[in-house]
Design brief:
The protein is built from 9 helices and 13 strands. By secondary structure, it is α+β, with helices and mostly antiparallel strands. The protein folds into 2 domains: about 110 residues, no CATH class; about 130 residues, no CATH class. It is globular and about 70 Å long.
């Protein structure tokens, strides 16, 4: 039974490790984003503690068959408990008031024809590569290859100072990556925007490019930010300014050529070529007439009011 067999230290270690490697560990629950998704190891531990025989640290690594058990989840969200129960043979029943939750879990758990899926996925990949693949390429800062693949574009919200009009980047902090997932801490310079890697997080030193003193704390905190040009205090968000602009400040990429001999991740400040690609994408988007981007007004509500406070009044503004 769970009161006797659930091993908190054992599961805590597994759950922590699962979250740390979630960029590489991609179970079926990773096919679609769901916020605050709990680790699968935690739910598997709960199930095995209740229904399996013997100590949890032994049962966890066995081929368990819990057929005959029926697990119900009336608030399934991302569906992690249901998927873990299904993996060990349980019958499952789940519900959620959110239709997106229902659709995601349904696609994750129902039978998939792998042959049909592989064919469709390859056709989609080929089409996307042909039409927009060039916009997801960048120059590697290490070897100079122009065939590095962009993984993430990192953007920061920008607001104008109410006194002098200078744009303020709403950085809550300048730490891009901690040394837990990269050999060193990666910090963006508040002056020139270049990236500096350092082993010291508390005393990061100076920017390797312009010698500006680095700091972890950004200007944006508790809905207030100070203008670096005139010193005026600004409040954000301010719906009177409309929806905020966004500025691309960093890119994470993958270089197939360098990866075999490289330790850690690849980051770079966007160069002129990258910004030219962004400008071309914006031009293309302005010429398009999207079929599936709703232009409805965002209604008032507990969650949607957050968007409205930032000046987003129509769903199309959030794309």
């Amino acid at each position: 039974m769970i009161e006797k067999h659930f091993d908190i230290p054992f599961i805590a270690d597994l759950a922590l490790r699962e979250k740390q490697i979630q960029q590489n560990y991609r179970p079926i629950i990773a096919v679609h984003k769901w916020f605050a998704r709990r680790p699968g190891t935690m739910f598997r531990g709960l199930l095995l503690s209740e229904f399996a025989d013997g100590p949890l640290h032994e049962a966890f690594y066995k081929a368990n068959d819990l057929s005959g058990c029926h697990v119900a989840d009336p608030f399934m969200g991302g569906g992690t408990p249901i998927l873990e129960a299904n993996r060990v043979g349980c019958d499952v029943t789940a519900f959620d008031i959110n239709p997106m939750s229902y659709w995601i879990v349904k696609q994750e758990i129902e039978h998939l024809d792998l042959g049909v899926y592989a064919k469709a996925a390859e056709a989609l990949r080929t089409t996307l590569e042909k039409e927009i693949g060039q916009f997801y390429r960048t120059r590697c800062t290490l070897c100079g290859s122009n065939d590095a693949h962009v993984k993430y574009f990192l953007w920061v919200k920008v607001t104008p100072c109410h006194e002098c009009g200078k744009n303020i980047d709403l950085f809550p902090g300048y730490l891009i990556s901690a040394d837990s997932r990269h050999p060193k801490n990666v910090i963006i310079c508040p002056a020139c925007g270049e990236l500096t890697e350092t082993s010291e997080r508390k005393e990061p030193g100076n920017c390797h490019h312009c010698a500006t003193e680095l700091t972890l704390n950004g200007p944006a905190k508790r809905s207030r930010c100070r203008c670096s040009a005139c010193g005026a205090d600004n409040h954000y968000p301010n719906a009177n300014f409309g929806s905020p602009r966004h500025r691309l400040f960093t890119m994470e990429y993958h270089c197939p050529k360098c990866k075999p001999s490289h330790t850690g991740r690849f980051f770079k400040k966007p160069d002129d070529q990258d910004m030219a690609r962004i400008n071309e994408v914006e031009k293309r988007w302005s010429r398009m007439r999207p079929k599936y981007v709703p232009d409805d007004e965002i209604p008032n509500g507990d969650e949607t009011d957050r968007l409205r406070r930032w000046g987003y009044m129509h769903y199309s503004q959030t794309t």
